[in-house]
Amino acid sequence: MGALSTFRQSQFDSLRLKQMWSMCASMPSFRVNGCSDAVEFSRVIMDNRTLAFESSYGHIFLTDIGQGRATVSFSFMDGRLGEHTDEAKGFLRWAMKELGLSRIQAVVPLFWKAYLRWLETRMGFTVEGIMRGWNSGDAVMLSCIAGEV
Fold first, then answer.
1. Fewer C-beta neighbours within 10 Å, C or N terminus of the chain?
2. Tens of pLDDT along 30-58?
3. Number of domains in the chain
4. Inside any domain, residue 115
């Protein structure tokens, strides 16, 4: 598994979901698939089209998995995006190969500049456009396709 070796697939029960929501909700700019409360977060995470992976320093969520596509959210609690680039790229390559994905997209609030820059310059994502009125503000849609990571 190489770069993916420090991540493991998450197992959830209601207590674990509440703890995870509390942790994610404490980061004002973090949203998994646009979730705004614990109930919605639990619904998305427990959906059979969602995979969650965790390590000692963060989480990767793949949501809306289907038809060769998925949406990714990275959450590194230590805030050091650059230090996790190789591992995150390894995860994307693994997901594309093992899950048969040809496209992975990310939806990022417009104000989250460092995350947007990391996805575009270090992770190989391409900006596709602005999603106006997404949740409580505008967001940027980015994607990468097989062979670009």
1. N
2. 555 566 666 666 666 666 677 877 776 77
3. 1
4. no
Distances (CA, A) of 77 to 43, 67, 72, 84, 91: 22, 31, 16, 11, 17
d(CA 127, CA 107): 10
Residue 40 lies in a domain: yes
Show Cβ contacts of residue 67 under 8 Å, excluding neighbours closer than 6 positions. Answer: none
Query: What global pTM score does this model have?
Result: 0.72
Q: Where are the beta strands (DSSP E) in the chain?
A: 8-9, 51-55, 58-66, 69-76, 103-109, 126-134, 137-145
Looking only at the bridges linking them, the beta strands covering 69-76 and 103-109 are parallel
